[in-house]
Amino acid sequence: MSFEVFEKLEAKVQQAIDTITLLQMEIEELKDQNNNLKQEVNHASGNTESLVRENQQLKEEQHVWQERLRALLGKMEEV
């Protein structure tokens, strides 16, 4: 009878080991996914910063053109 109990215990231990192994593999996969997502976020953040700078530059250029246009319109009114 104790041999049967020992076999059941051994089976449960083996099942626990298998479960732990699978969970460890899943953890590694999730770590890889997390690292990939962090890289994507960093890349997107860099793109966002670049777009913000470009937007600011374009706004400044627009402002310069508006001032030029106003100056030209002012000259035209004087004539």
From TrEMBL:
Subcellular location: Cytoplasm
Coarse class of the protein's main subcellular location: cytoplasm
UniProt keyword annotation of rRNA-binding present: no
Keyword Transmembrane: no
Coiled coil segments of this chain: 6-61
Signal peptide from the UniProt entry: none
Pfam family, one: ZapB
GO CC, any one term: cytoplasm
InterPro entries: Cell_div_ZapB
GO biological process: division septum assembly; FtsZ-dependent cytokinesis
Keywords, alphabetical: Cell cycle, Cell division, Coiled coil, Cytoplasm, Septation
Function per UniProt: Non-essential, abundant cell division factor that is required for proper Z-ring formation. It is recruited early to the divisome by direct interaction with FtsZ, stimulating Z-ring assembly and thereby promoting cell division earlier in the cell cycle. Its recruitment to the Z-ring requires functional FtsA or ZipA.
Similarity remark: Belongs to the ZapB family.
Description of how the protein assembles with itself and partners: Homodimer. The ends of the coiled-coil dimer bind to each other, forming polymers. Interacts with FtsZ.
Protein name, UniProt field: Cell division protein ZapB
